[in-house]
Specification:
The chain has a domain of 176 residues: Rossmann fold (3-Layer(aba) Sandwich), CATH 3.40.50.300. It has 8 helices and 12 strands. α3 packs across α4, α4 packs parallel to α5 and α5 packs parallel to α6. The radius of gyration is 18 Å and the shape is globular. It starts with 15 loop residues before the first strand and ends with a strand.
Amino acid sequence: MTTTKDDTRTPAQPLLELDNVACEYKLDGGGRFRAVSDVSLQLGRSEVLGLVGESGCGKSTLAKLICGLEKPAAGRITFDSHPVKPLGLGRRPNHLLGIQMVFQNPYASLNPRRRIRDQLTDALALDSDQTWTVDSLLEAVDLPLDAAQRFSHSFSGGQRQRIAIARALAAGPKVLVGDEPIASLDAFLQARIAKMMRDLAIESGASMIFISHDLSIVHEIADRVAVMEAGGVVEVGSTEQIWNDPQHPYTKKLLSAIPRVDGKGIIPG
């Protein structure tokens, strides 16, 4: 089943909320660099939020903050009424297992020494109410059932990314964060994988933050869009509003760079 977008939806009761969040890094020569500055965002239930901007604008840092992989220098992140705290050396708190991430590099995100079945089984064990099985997960991401017995080196980049998506879904997430999950794939696969992520997230009852520098693909899958520039969010709106009536000069700049045919962005097939 394929889901459709609802561009009018707003997160009246947000599942995830960022309130004036900032992140800083120490510089080798002294001083600090602020990678994310005063970002406030909300993610609704069963919503897909696209986060777009050029490379280096802070998108991936924001994703790590949401998942607890980075410590905020200021502000607060709340998920399902619980504060999101940076991960320590111990086990991740159960209430934060509802946030799962699909990373950009499918070659680094899977364990090369363990069979795919074992990696999916580990993820399934994180959710006691899970209805997925290893076989149903592989079917959901269009992979043959015998893939479970193989190691990650035997798969292409697109297949590995589909396995990474299956592993994230296996944990029963309420929020799926895709950090440039299609950037390393060829143009033919990018739109397919993006749409697959949206459909699987929504059909499983999850929300999704899809991070990309490609506004054309985000237009196809997102309900709302947040535009980042130089560490800050400069504009947020429904996908159609951002696409047809952008307000910020930077958003207009991003849109002007997209090839157009009859007024529509070119989407790879």
